[in-house]
Specification:
Blueprint: H1 2-8, H2 12-15, H3 20-31, E1 36-39, H4 47-52, H5 61-64, H6 67-80, E2 82-86, H7 90-101, E3 112-117, H8 130-138, E4 146-151, H9 155-168, H10 170-179, E5 183-191, E6 199-204
Parallel strand pairs: 1-2, 2-3, 3-4, 4-5
Antiparallel strand pairs: 5-6
Length: about 210
């Protein structure tokens, strides 16, 4: 495919003959974005498609026709980018590409995550809350270095979410904080006037 050739600067066959250092530099230049890659809903076009364009095709083995190339590209993509994800879609986003490829598991490579939590994301029919499920997922991310939880609700709903995160799941949260190189940060958005029209972030200390 011409788009793959354009990204690599040569054919797949010739590219794979290059030293790993050279291949790594190409992957990093093509697949690394400045700032967080925002992922809100699986039904909405990912922001990454606008930022990274045809380079994302390197992640798809059925497009490149080369398993090794795609796995190398995936490792760089997940380990060198920071992702900002709405909590209920965390498993979907990082599981989707794993299911598509059948071999590569992004959880083993992702390093930086920011998780957005909303009270509306809770499903009353689910036995486990969104906070507990999110922490359970993060425990399986072996190379994770730092994670930020963003409490997106102000007022009582934000208070409830914060209580869920800091109290009901405290042992898991503390274990995660100890394990990560840069630890866990919790940010609460709060209204600064009665109308709630303006929110500012506040860092919440862990218990």
């Amino acid at each position: 495919m011409q788009e793959i050739t354009n990204v690599l600067g040569t054919s797949v066959a010739e590219f794979m003959k290059k030293p790993w250092k050279d291949r790594k530099n190409v992957y990093r230049d093509a697949l690394t974005a400045d700032g967080f890659l925002l992922k809100l809903d699986p039904g909405v076009q990912d922001e990454e498609e606008e930022l990274l364009g045809p380079a994302l095709l390197l992640l798809k083995r059925d497009v490149t026709g080369n398993k090794r190339l795609s796995e190398e590209a995936q490792r760089i993509y997940y380990s060198h980018n920071a992702f900002r994800v709405r909590a209920p879609w965390l498993r979907e986003f990082f599981g989707r590409r794993h299911r598509e490829d059948g071999h590569f598991d992004p959880r083993l490579w992702v390093r930086r995550l920011s998780i957005m939590l909303y009270r509306d994301d809770e499903d009353e029919e689910e036995e486990q809350g969104v906070v507990a499920k999110t922490l359970q997922f993060l425990m399986k991310c072996d190379r994770l270095r730092d994670v930020t939880f963003e409490i997106k609700d102000s007022g009582r709903e934000g208070d409830e979410l914060l209580a869920d995160l800091l109290n009901s799941t405290q042992p898991s949260l503390q274990e995660l904080d100890r394990r990560l190189e840069r630890g866990v940060m919790v940010i609460r958005e709060k209204a600064v006037h009665d109308m709630g029209g303006y929110l500012e972030p506040e860092v919440v200390p862990l218990p």
